[in-house]
Amino acid sequence: MTKRRIERSQRGGLRTISLLAGLGLLISAAPVFAGHIPPTVQLIAASTTDPAIDDVIGMHHVALGPGVERAGRLLVFLPGTGAPPQLYSQLIEGAARQGYHAIGLAYVNPAAVNVLCFGMAASGCQEKVRREIILGTDETTLVNVDFDNSIVNRLDRLLAHLESIAPNEGWDGYRNAVGQLRWERVVVAGHSQGAGHAAFIARLESVARAVLFSGTEAAAWTQAGDFVTPASNIWAFGHSLEAFISAFQSSWDNIGIPGIPTSVDGVGAPFGTSQQLTTSNTNCTGDPQANGFYHNCHCVDGFMPPPLPDGTPYFQYVWDELFRFESTPAVPSLDPIGIGALLLTLVLLSKWNLRQSTAGRIRVRPASIRTRPAAISRMASGSSRRSRA
User: Fold this and answer.
1) Rounded CA gap, 243 and 237, in Å?
2) How far apart (Å, rounded) are the C-alpha atoms in residues 173 and 101?
3) Which of 183, 184, 215 minimizes the C-alpha distance to 199?
4) Which class for 371: exposed (0-12), middle (13-18), buried (19 or more C-beta within 10 A)?
């Protein structure tokens, strides 16, 4: 993809974000919700992680909460067509508060898959386009994505970059000793086009969970019955008033996502036993005549209903359920503050034990600290590097 083509793909507010790409790394603090320490947020240009990668629309949006709250899960969120990850900042940073290492991934998304494939569904067009965008294999002339610019490589290079600049933050927990992605620790999610990519990755890899926000098309690939990720680990959330909700719900049924469309309005989690969730909330913000008004209402900044009085995003209670996990492998790293706190605790316990012993009381010893080895999963099907004009 040439720089000129990339520049043509940016419009309006996206152009402002593209100008930041040359800065490489920006750090900010997110708003505080009640009872939560705000995560640290970094905006990282894709080219910073590897000069062979093009800067397209926006920058990688990386959010991480304090060490004591990290849970050993990685969220990879894929934006919709033409959108930078920064338009999903509340959702990504909300996941970081929930304990995730959270990434909004900037990738090649200037054109809608189903616009590119209009009238060509019978040829398997959507599958070919998605496979090339995700893996970088040469599948179709409709897109031009080499391996360097594929979603899988962009994620791999970003994780390697984060490991190098922040070795004590636990980013090393998502690649094994030979650099393969540990998909079993990854929750992959996306909106619109990104939801389709998330579903397709769940078809290729056994991920911890996949979450689809208003996606995907009910194409043949969703009926293949060969998803590596069990349908019980896939969730979906859409708006009942958006234009393509019926098609999305057909794809959910094709994939086998448990349950039937169930409203989240006026009720709390876990919304029964269904993993097909919807809202009919009409208190969305922004221009009601804008393209995607309801399509964006449940996850895009500037479209969601007003936040709660403490600043919590309106749909956080739904996101918490979508990204909930029962148990996670520990990521074997601590930040310097965490290490210091652990050492201080052990010293104080040792002194307390000595006093108890000299006073003739029962001696209490600090419990030994054990770590469990984490399982390593297979990597996505590798594809050879190639170069195309």
Assistant:
1) 14
2) 10
3) 215
4) exposed
For residues 245 and 231, the answer to whether their CB atoms sit within 8 Å is no
Domain that holds residue 62: 3-332
Cβ atoms of 238 and 80 within 8 Å: the answer is: no
Give the separation between CA 280 and CA 304, rounded to whole angstroms.
12
Q: Are 255 and 230 in contact (CB under 8 A)?
A: no
Residue that the structure tokens 């152009």 belong to: 15
Question: Would 341 be classed as within a structural domain?
Answer: no
Q: Is 205 within 8 Å of 183 (Cβ atoms)?
A: yes
**Amino acid, single-letter form, for residue 223:** Q
- pTM comes to 0.78
The answer to whether the beta carbons of residues 213 and 192 sit under 8 Å apart is: yes
Q: Report H helices in 166-323.
A: 193-204, 245-255, 316-322
| Inside any domain, residue 344 | no
Residue 338 falls inside a structural domain: no
Report if residue 274 sits inside a domain. Answer: yes
Report d(CA 140, CA 127) in Å as an integer: 10
Q: How buried is 95 (Cβ within 10 angstroms: 0-12 exposed, 13-18 middle, 19+ buried)?
A: buried
- Say how many domains are in the chain: 1
Using omega within 30 degrees of 0 as the cis cutoff, is the peptide bond preceding 216 cis?
A: yes
pLDDT digits (tens, 9 = 90+) for 56-87: 999 999 999 887 678 789 999 999 999 999 99
Per the DSSP assignment, residues forming a β-bridge with 190 are 78, 212
* pLDDT tens column, 298-337: 999 999 999 999 999 999 999 999 999 765 444 444 444 4
Residue type present at position 358: T
Residue whose structure tokens are 């208190």: 283
The Cα–Cα gap between 335 and 346 comes to 17
